[in-house]
Design goal:
By secondary structure, the chain is an all-beta fold. It has 4 domains: about 1-60; about 65-160, Immunoglobulins (Immunoglobulin-like), CATH 2.60.40.10; about 165-260, Immunoglobulin-like, CATH 2.60.40; about 265-350, Sandwich (Immunoglobulin-like). Helices cover about 0% and strands about 45% of the residues.
């Protein structure tokens, strides 16, 4: 075997009777030529019919690399979030040999059940995942050239999502003669104010308007009890709703009704938004104090979450169901007040 086709300085290897031979310590990215000479016990021999060549190329994994941002311990106030990292150098990169990256985000430092995002060959990625507030998340990046094992970034950094600000202090003042309801609520701007888009006002779980100011006038035309709730909508994020307020409208009544009422029937008053993305609010009305159990059931009839299971006073009670751990689909809310109510309401999770 030699490094030139004319075998000027050949290297020979004896294999005795074997027809294979393993070579070690060859120079990387070098062309070699080889042929074989066969000899019998009488020292009579002949060369192989052909002389072949080959080129060595040793696969080397990309070098380690560093995360760039958001920096370790950062508080993120913008969604979608942009993650950046340094490019990993691939020592044996060729024209069609690229480094591919995967971003991992986890709610624990051990990355037990991480979210995975394919970044292809990019060294930054926007993530629109609706992550929870007041939770420390960890992120890291893996790199591979598709031919060798993946390597991880030098660091795994943490970050958290800044608090979103839902409305609060909702008031509903009903003019019983005209059916006009003047709604108003309070709102703290907070650091996310530059991403504020509108408030969403719901009447009986149905969206009725998207005002940008914290007031709204609604007009009722039919007799009944109506429940109002308001959320704040930022870019790509809707907050939880404020505490609901109910009004009872009786046309032409001269009774001075209060905006906040104890309901006159046992029921699931509202589930909103529906369909929902991750967070579902459930409002249950109790005409009298009672033991109350509110649970969430999947389509197999299995109980997957219990929102409350305790004694509650008469009035409207609001609970939230976190759907982040569950797949998109149909679920059911079951509210039970022994001897008075056993109601089921369908909700739809859409991620």
């Amino acid at each position: 075997m030699g490094s030139t086709s004319d075998f000027t300085e050949p290297v020979t290897f004896e294999t005795e009777t074997d027809t294979t031979y393993q070579l070690d310590d060859l120079t990387n990215d070098t062309q070699y030529w080889w042929k074989v000479y066969a000899e019998n016990q009488l020292e009579l021999g002949t060369w192989s019919d052909e002389t072949w060549s080959f080129t060595t190329h040793i696969l080397v994994a990309p070098d380690t690399f560093s995360l760039l941002g958001p920096e370790d311990g950062a508080t993120i106030q913008v969604v979608p979030m942009t993650f950046e990292w340094a490019a990993a150098f691939d020592p044996d990169a060729g024209e069609e040999d690229f480094v591919y990256y995967t971003l991992y985000i986890s709610a624990d430092e051990d990355f037990t059940e991480p979210f995975e995002y394919d970044a292809d060959t990019n060294t930054e990625l926007e993530v629109e995942e609706n992550l929870e507030e007041d939770v420390t998340y960890w992120w890291k990046v893996s790199a591979t050239d598709g031919e060798t094992d993946s390597i991880m970034s030098n660091q795994a950094w943490s970050f958290s999502i800044d608090e979103w600000y839902p409305p609060y202090g909702l008031e509903a003042n009903l003019d019983d003669e005209t059916g006009i309801v003047n709604l108003s609520w309070l709102f703290d701007e907070g650091p996310q104010q530059d991403r504020f888009m509108w408030f969403t006002v719901y009447r009986d779980s149905v969206e009725i308007d998207r005002p940008v100011d914290s007031v709204l006038v609604d007009t009722l035309t039919e007799e009944g009890i109506y429940t109002y709730m308001v959320t704040t909508y930022y870019q790509a994020h809707e907050t939880e709703a404020c505490e609901p307020v109910a009004v009872e409208y009786i046309p032409n009544s001269v009774t001075d009704l209060k905006a906040r009422l104890i309901p006159d029937k046992w029921s699931i008053v509202a589930t909103y938004p529906n369909p929902f993305n991750l967070i579902q609010t459930v409002v249950v009305g109790l005409p009298q104090s009672s033991k109350l159990t509110v649970s969430v059931i999947n389509t197999l009839g299995q109980e997957i979450d219990v929102l409350t299971d305790e004694f509650k006073k008469a009035g409207l009670h609001s609970f939230t169901f976190d759907g982040s751990k569950y797949s998109s689909g149909i679920y059911f809310v079951n509210a039970i007040a022994p001897g008075n109510m056993n109601e089921i309401r369908k909700i739809v999770l859409m991620k």
